[in-house]
Amino acid sequence: MYFGESANYGFLFLAPWLIFFPTLGLLINVAFGHKFSERTIGAVASLATGAAFVVSIALAWTLSASHADVLRWRLAEWIHIGAVSLDWTFRVDALSATMMLVVSGVGTLIHIYAIGYMHEDVRFKADPRRFQRFFVFLNLFIAAMMILISADSYLMLFIGWEGVGLCSFLLIGFWYEMDTLGQPSWSNSYAAKKAFVVNRIGDYGFLIASFIMFWAFGTFQFDAVFAKAPQVSQGLIVAITLFYLLGVTGKSAQIPLYVWLPDAMAGPTPVSALIHAATMVTAGVYLITRSAPLYSAVPAAQNIVALTGAVTALFAATIAAGQYDIKKVLAYSTISQLGFMVAAVGVGAYVAGMFHLVTHAFFKALLFLAAGSVILGMERGHHHVEHAHQDKSKKGKKKQEDRGEIFDPGDMRNMGGLRKTMPVTFWVYMAGTLALAGIPPFAGFWSKDEILLDASLHNPTVYWLLTIAAFFTAFYMGRQIWLVFFGTARHEAASHAEESPRVITFPLIALAILSVIGGAINLPFTGFHHFTHWLEGALGKVEAMNLDMQVALVSTALALAAIAISWFLYGRAPADAVRRDPLETLGVLFKGMNGKWWIDELYQALVITPYVKTAQFLADVIDGRFWHDWFHDSVVVGGFNWASRIGLNVYADQKGIDAFANSLGAWTQSLSTMMRKVQNGFVRSYALTFLLGVVLILGYLVFK
Amino acid sequence: MEFLLQPLTLVIFFPLVGVFALLFIPKENKDAMRWTTLIVALITFGISIYVLTMFRAADVNLQLVARYDWIVVGGWNIQYFLGVDGLSILLVLLTTLLTWISILSAWTAVEERVKEFMIFFLLLEVGMNGVFLAQDLFLFYIFWEFTLVPMYFIIGIWGGPRRIYAALKFFLYTMAGSILMLLAILWLGIYGNTFSVPDLIARGGIPVNIQMWLFIAFALAFAIKVPMWPLHSWLPDAHVEAPTAGSVILAGVLLKLGTYGFVRFNLPLFPEAAVSAAPWMALLAAIGIIYGAAVSYAQADIKKLVAYSSVSHLGFVMLGVFALNPEGVAGGILQMINHGVSTGALFLLVGMIYEQTHTREFRLYGGLWKITPVFGTIYLITSMSSMGLPGLNGFVGEFTVLLGAWGAGQNGVFYWGGVWLAAISALGVIMAAVYILYMFQRMFMGPLGEIVEEAKKHGRPIRDLNWREIAVIAPLVILMFWIGLYPAPFFNLMAPAVNHLVGMLPLP
Amino acid sequence: MTFSDFTTILPVAILAVWACALLVVDLFIPKDRKGVTALLAALGLAISLGYTLSQIGDERLGFSGMVALDGFSIFLNALILVCGLLGVALAYDYLKRMNIERGEYYVLLLFSSIGAMLMAQAADLIIIFLALELLSIPLYVLSAFARSNVSSEEAGLKYFLLGAFSSGFLVYGIALIFGAAHTTNLYAILAAASASTVSPLLAFGAALVLVGFGFKIAAVPFHMWTPDAYQGAPTAVTAFMSSSAKIAGFAALLRVFITAFSPLAVNMTDVLWGLSALTMVVGNIIAITQTDIKRMLAYSSIAHAGYILMAFVPYGNAAVAPVSVAAGLFYLIVYAITNFGAWGVVIAVERTEGKGLAISDYSGLAKNHPALAAAMSIFMVSLIGFPPTLGLVGKVYLFRAVIDGGFVVLAVIGVLTSIISAFYYLRVVVNMYMRDGEPSIRREFWLDFTWGALAFLTVFLSLIPQTLFAWASSALMKLF
Amino acid sequence: MVPVDYYVILSAILFTIGVLGVLIRRNALIIFMSIELMLNAANLAIVAFGSVIESFSGQIFVFFVIAVAAAEVAIGLALIVEIFKSKRSIDVDQVSGLKG
Amino acid sequence: MTLDLALFLVLACIAVASALGMLLSRNTVYAALYLVLNFITVAIFYLLLGAPFIAMAQITVYTGAIMVLFLFVIMLLGAENLPAPNALPWQKPLAIALAAALFAEAAYLLIVKARSLGNVLPPAEAINATENLRQLGVALFQNYLLPFEIVSILLLVAMIGAITLTKKEKGARNG
What we know:
The complex is a heteropentamer. Chain A is mainly α.
């Protein structure tokens, strides 16, 4: 391997350890995990990620200390063939350093959380041996994510890009033998597969974009590409950026490829938090931000990006308002928030997008983790109830329970009044909710407001779409709070729910604090634009914007109104609301919101079924019956048999002959069988054939 | 003696030592046979490594040349001419590697007629290495055809229920293709008064219309071997019926003989024809990619799925080769290695589970990951490598191939095909995910399958891999990561040769 | 007659004297010791072979230009004598086993060889005709040699009737040539033919002569006797006649066409082309559905006649003719070795009363008798024309000659029919290796030696074909 | 003088009749006689051709052909007698056990 | 029309008629006798063509020896009249058609294409029978010694063959 090349500033040499540490952690756990206790496994994994966090800090420090825009560390030669000249280089600039910090920071917290969460989860699902596997996958994810964000070229980025996809697949399918309710089923594994395949469709766009880029720019390296961008035709750049957008819609769950993300909630909750909320899904936003010089060069493409994000934001928010599963709500919320970010980068507000990415990482991770805590609490309660029943009447009752409906610990209709039984969880959840709903001064407000402000300046359509989406956001979060934490317990399990242990609550609290104060990194007041200035190193000069009261007031007012409406609908009489959702009065609209606007069904009918049918047609009919059977058997053999029956009245009999009858062999065999008839044993007839030969030869001489 | 001690001669013919040794081992002593064969194969592998150390990548000419007159009489000018260059070195290594891996994999799977099995395997190795190293067309043809014989026996004797059918089909299809090549070879021999490939290339100047015919004759032989769509119909039969070791070698090396043939012979010998055929070949390759991937998805039999996936994968190789630029050709060659490693490993793994369950039907499987975590993990890695996940070998090959193909489309090499061929082929990446994940999901995820209960009932509960099996698969897994994470050495080995090759082509 | 005349046919003369003496000696050899006759016959063949080889390099005409001694004849005489030796070796045990052991067998075999050798040396149509009869008449008798067996008699009768029928055409053809050229001497015919434009009479005669030889070499459509005669005749006889008679037929055909009829190429090339193609196609296709190994090999032998005939097609092209004739000669060696080997295996597996002759009787051979099965596989693979066997080298040589002559389509037919042939040859292999059965075989030293040595040679010589190539190429140079 | 052509045509007629005899008669003996007729026709042609030149070569050839015919007759009749012994018939159509 | 020609035509008619007689007669004995007649006619042609030696040989060997042998065998086996059933119904028409084609082709090639083949030399010049015979004998034993030897061997072989084929074996199958 080839080390060095770039001048070594400070801790730059540590850059590869961003990947090596998590890899080391996973290798240790793979090799020795079966001998370790759960705590050790968790500690190894968390330490590995924590070490990566430390490295990230060191790198960020080095970056700022060096006053360089970009630092590079060349690890190894990668592909040098033809025009391709590519090394594996680590890139440290403001953008990647931010992502590193977020990923490893939030990642570490989630690792810690997961120690507690998975301890219980593996027991509820009755396979404690899988604890080890979870942390292996989690570390693998961190490593892959680090590859993605530390890449110095589109191709290396793509490696991480797909690597995180694999981890997503593995973690969604973590409980591959059951559904989300723990019942034996294929559904989790389907969800996993769906995530991967849909992402691959996006990756197709990524690939095509890369191909166009390479043959237009002659390189994959970021700076080289950007430097050459002005000389490349607009059309090509539009194509590149739009194909990248396809990749982004896959990875960052935008229309039309968002469909995998809600299903991805099949994964354990820390996964939802880490991968499907805080980090991986933001990779698309990161990609666009990274490609800012390209996107900025083509306004047409930018508009499409912005609209995609804005429409997604609104669309997903409406669906979120109609869901009953606590995690599904958050999932659609994530899609919606990602839409905000994509819209932001689409209108050119890269800083705002990244800012929202960071704050969103905090509060959405928090919400997911807290939701996980809720679910655990519910399960504990359910467990408790079940035990009690078992104690009461040994077997009879238990059977009844089995026969009855399966308990869903994630269904909000089973909850209620949890603020009393799970106070810590409640408070942190509130913090997350307010941040998400965009209530000042929580972190979400600042970042969302910056997006709205930018949108209002550049693209009114986007602005209004986002504003309505923000309204819905506040509404469904309010709905969730009322249904989950207020009112009275609507299920025995909810009344017996227990607060989670400290290993879970500690990360929650940490994240809650970040959700509250995280906005401080980039307040819209002169002198407080730290984050903007920080990113300038990577994005070039950015105009820092101050608070626009109009935008802020509109959004805040709408958010408050939405919460109020949600209280009116759900908070007053949650029990009634559960029996019949007040929104059902909207009729088909609610059905659409609840049924996810039937997009899955649409895709099933438009894409999946036709593909499966085509594949089966190709396999059975074309390959099997046509090439293999029909062409050989019917056309060749059958045709010959037919001809011979009609013309020569001999029937091709293939019995007693080795059975390789369905290929060309059969044809020659039939021919052979026919020709054998001439050899009839009669010497006179032999002589006749002989004479025929003579006559033919002489005939040739005659006519020659 | 000098003749015998040539490193390339040794690589090819050293397995014959094993064959002779095996002849004298009594029938009952199966372990002795296995060990003998394994050791001989390992030594051969060692020799090939030695060849690698002697190899200088920067030199575009043939190296370690062994060249002796063989049949030089009466108008014949046939030489014993071996040489290795960047186009073949990796394939030789792959062959010697997969041979001992296959032998190890057949340790317990082959219990009957062990001696013959091992003899055929070693003979097969002789033939395969010979094909990759021969630089005289006639010598090449002999090795080329010779590989059919042992494989025919391996499928026919140790194969599944329809083995005879499959073996015959395999034999006849491939023979049918190659025999026209013989005529083309003879034509070239008469034309150039030599069968030496470098000399013929240097001579050049074959009229274009004749080049076309010769190209077709060669291409037919290679295309059947590859197999390119629509000449693939022998492959699923052969794979399904072949024993595991046979499938591994078949997929791992034998199919590469075809793609290698295109690179080694079709491109440099008939450059004008190759250039004008490029869009058509690329079109067939693209169809193969899509078709193979789609058909894979609809299979109910694991081995068939993998077999059809080979059609798709080798489509990538062909696409790369006929992109006629360094990226494509090098990608194609690397993809040959990748396919050998990944699909070879897949067949090994399928064989390992088949040995326990005796069924290859998806619907009987399910949830295996739970009871066989190691197996599942390795299967996962292998599957991912096969579907071209970045970080594993498959991606590097597919990406460079597609990149090359896109470039070829943009630069007019594909004429009417343009970038569309590459764009359509790239869809294969998505479709690969569909069938690979389908396979993985069906086997390893979901609730436990029927077969698990069944195996338990018969007192043979499904077990995880044992150490021998891990040893068999480990080198391949290591290679997957190595090529995937650090492909530079592989590219560097072939880059000069590839550039040289592409430089000879009269590109539009 | 001078002594010099006599020495031109010295090996033939020795063999003739030896055969007559053997006929007498045989009377004194007791019935249960006829093996001695076999050894004596072999000795005679060996001595003759020795003298043949001592003639290498000698080159002249004898008996007023009626016979030629040249590389060509020496090459073929040696080959014919080797075939005779192999024929004796195969018959040695076989006759005993089949209970048809009589001294006349070997005497007739010797006489037949004499006829074959004379055909190789003949430079006059009269000699060719007489030699052909001398070759054939013993074969008629040998075919019917197992008189207790109806099939054998049938084989003899069919072979005889059709043989006589074809002789009629041959004689008529010679008559026409005589009418056109007023001579029967080949060199004189050439002179006469080259002197003027091609006489249609000569072409007519040549065509009928071709028909006569076509019968002998079993070219389609003059092949009809072959399967029946090969199947019905005792296997040892079949082995001998399938090689020896074919070699002799090709020898005479080559010499006549190249020496005398080269000006006729304009007419004859197409005819030969058609014969060759038809023979390859029909022989191979009918062979596919055979279930009896002898019959299958008979059709295989027909097909191979087609391959060898390919070498004749470019005979009129002076630049290519040397190569093509060398290719034909080379293939004759290949064919003789492989064919004898295959028949040797058939004899080993055959049991009395016609059992053990079905291809299915070979099932399981590989398990119980791996060496025999391996040998048979080698022969089958060689007959297909696959490496590493002589069959491939031979076919390659042929195809090259044909391509060199510009007959690519014929070469394509050749290779395509080779593929078809793989069907039925492989079926034997399939049965031996991939099916179960309990065949019993006959082990006997000379038999084992024959197939073993031939199998070895089939592989070994393919690796060093240089010497054989050299022989074959030098063999024809002297012809011109 | 009579042109040689006439003789040759006559010989061709006789030859054709001989061929026809082989083809349409089932009696082995008559088939055999027909073959003799064919040889005879050929002989006639040779002698006719020979008569235009000052040489005996044609006649000598005919002499040999006659001798060969005699030899063939010896063998042929022996075979026919043998077949008759087992088949009790000289119908060649009866001798058709080997076929295919 | 010269006398020669008339003689030729008459003889030719007899020859053809006798050949057809052989071809068509149901009775084997008759067929043999027709053939004898044909051979004798041909022998006369030989005389006309100036080949008395061959004519003699024809009469003695063919008519005398061979045909007697035939008749002998016919007597031995019984002059069998074969029953009508015919396994090959298409044989006869095809045979006739092909034979006609053969003749047509032969005639075309011989007459039309080859044109005149020359005239038979007048027998007067070669009338000296003894001289003729002597020259022939000399040729036979000088120039044609080898064929002569071969023929002698051939006859020996035929003898051996005939004996081999018909000799009663001890312990052989009955009949």
